Amino acid sequence: MEILAVFLVGLCCVLQSNGIEVEASENNGCRNFQPHTVMLQEKQSYRTSFHFQPPRNWLNDPNGPMWYRGVYHLFYQYNPYGALFGDFMIWAHSVSYDLINWIHLNHALCPTEPYDINSCWSGSATILPGKGPVILYTGIDANQCQVQNMAMPKNLSDPFLEEWIKFAQNPIMTPPDGVEGNNFRDPTTAWLSHDGKWNVIIGSWNNNQGMAILYQSEDFFNWTKYQDPLYSTERTGMWECPDFYPVSVNSTYGVDTSVLNAGVKHVMKASFNSHDYYMIGTYVPEMEKYIPDNDFTGTGMDLRYDHGKFYASKTFFDSVKNRRILWGWVNESDSIEDDMDKGWSGLQSIPRRIWLDRSGKQLVQWPIEEINKLHGKKVTFLDKKIDSESIFEVQGITAAQADVEVVFELPELQEAEFLNLTAVDPQLLCSDANASIKGRLGPFGLLTLATKDLTEQTAIFFRIFKGLKGYVVLMCSDQSRFSLSPFNKSKSEQALNIK
């Protein structure tokens, strides 16, 4: 098989750091946390230059992303004392003017009160019309129970929102009857319904069902549990970090979380089983019900944001550029000992714009346009013919991080094997037909993060099949050889099916 390929390889410029370091002061409810200034090494192995990371220690869930008074805000789960998840988790806080270069500020929320004394866990930020942003977050109280709390900015005129005050009547929501205290967390961004009430969902697990428990409020201070969950299912585990938002049916522009009309569908996303799954469906506010077009099945056919390391994601509406932006936590693949030796663990994905596909059946994602400013040296190869089982090395750059655009042209699609999508799990298909197994049309693609002798490599490859209605492209990522480390070698292949 002969393949014609066009490569456009853009090398991103190296940033000096992942933000400007600022020494924290004793405020923001973090008085018990002793501030310190971190001196970064000039080079730190395996740290990225373009993804968001704090200077050191453990990072996980993105929390409360928003735009306010000309500034983008990102809060995130953080352990100020070490490179592993800890018993004293806080909300760290960074700001940016372009979602690329970040300033690390004082920590926003730290355990100080009985309702959050054992950690400040994940949540969201909602901007109240005419009143500014409000944070809803999960606190781990003195009894190790998960409760929902609220915090407001001390100074609304400060675009950096450097100080936050916890609501005096916290907690505002506690686990309802029948829900265990460790299965009640991660409030979403709130939305206004047709009756003028605020709505928010909490991730939970009860009676062998993952669920989105619905709470409502007329004033954003006093919350009442709705009689039924907004949605529940027996085909998942505990719902973590749920997200619920509208997407336009006829446009790639994003819409505000409170938009309710015939021109939108609604996305319900939940994090469970180490992945982020989502459904597209219809929200019926009069009944407070969510009706998905396709329910979760508990198989590889369920829709996922990402088939790599990506979890606990959060979206927000960027009103400046009318787009919805998606963040996700990327956790490490190495050992605990490696993380402790590095002194850090975890990063946030490059922010992505997200919208509804023209088919209305799945979401489309693309890195935000600001990423383009990182492009530096560019190498282009046109009309490169690649013979079967041959490897072409892209030369002219040396980079661990590059932006690659490639177009493959295959002359004879008629040779493709038949594939019945209704009977095939693409995840299993990618595992069974990995990058080393030859088919009629494929595998072909890219070997990334490869050593010179190719003993370590991550293959991103494609196979083409005949479907019942045209051709089917299967895109896979074979991670079985991405490291020689015994800890990493057992990592499984991931898959994405594109029709």
Automatic annotation (TrEMBL):
Glycosyl hydrolase family 32 N-terminal domain location: 51-367
Any one Gene Ontology molecular-function term assigned to this protein's record: beta-fructofuranosidase activity
Signal sequence region: 1-19
Pfam families the record matches: Glyco_hydro_32N
PROSITE patterns (alphabetical): GLYCOSYL_HYDROL_F32 (PS00609)
Listed GO biological process terms: carbohydrate metabolic process
Recorded catalytic activity of this chain's protein: Hydrolysis of terminal non-reducing beta-D-fructofuranoside residues in beta-D-fructofuranosides
SUPFAM superfamilies associated with the record: Arabinanase/levansucrase/invertase (SSF75005), Concanavalin A-like lectins/glucanases (SSF49899)
Family: Belongs to the glycosyl hydrolase 32 family.
Name of the protein in question: Beta-fructofuranosidase
Source organism per UniProt: Populus alba x Populus x berolinensis
